[in-house]
Amino acid sequence: MTDPELNEPNLNQPDFNQPDFNVTMLLCDHVTVAEGKLFINGGGWTLTGPNPTPMGIALVIGVPWSSAGSDVRFRLALVMTDGQPVAAPSGGAPIAIEGNVHVNSPEGMSPGAHLDVPLAINFPPLELPSGQRLIWELELNDSRHADWRLPFHTR
């Protein structure tokens, strides 16, 4: 539901479905994590190619306090707009990465605070289909959400 005066979601409505995780995703040339922070080079692009170029995906996963001390499973897959996986050139496996991130509660955080987990994922130069709209789709603990998609275009 939206607040008609502000044209924004009304978070007080009981039917507002909010995922357990808040996710921020950004395409970049390269990303790394150090001291709990993301260091991003060439961030914020949405058009690449035609030559194969390396790319990074910078993520901040906001995790509920109740998940402190646990692992979060993730899977990041590259798909076409119809949801079909993008395969590596010459009939290779679909382009995807999966793993676990451990959720720590930093010293000094107040109980109940939302915990941010930075994640840096880098890919070598990828040969991608030209003239397409592609989407990085994220899954967390086998859940997907419409906001956990990162689209871009290829020349």
Can you tell me about this structure?
- Helix content is 0%, strand content 54%.
- By secondary structure, it is mainly beta.
- It has one domain: Immunoglobulin-like, CATH 2.60.40.
- A five-stranded mixed sheet has the order 6-12-11-8-9, with no helix packed on it. The protein has a three-stranded antiparallel sheet with strand order 3-7-10, with no helix packed on it.
- The radius of gyration is 17 Å and the shape is elongated.
- The chain starts with a strand and ends with a strand.
Compact overview of the structure:
By secondary structure, this protein is mostly beta strands. The chain is built from no helices and twelve strands.
List the helices and strands and how they pair.
Layout: E1 2-3, E2 8-9, E3 22-28, E4 30-34, E5 37-41, E6 47-48, E7 53-63, E8 71-80, E9 96-102, E10 115-126, E11 133-140, E12 143-154
Parallel strand pairs: 6-12
Antiparallel strand pairs: 1-2, 3-7, 4-5, 7-10, 8-9, 8-11, 11-12
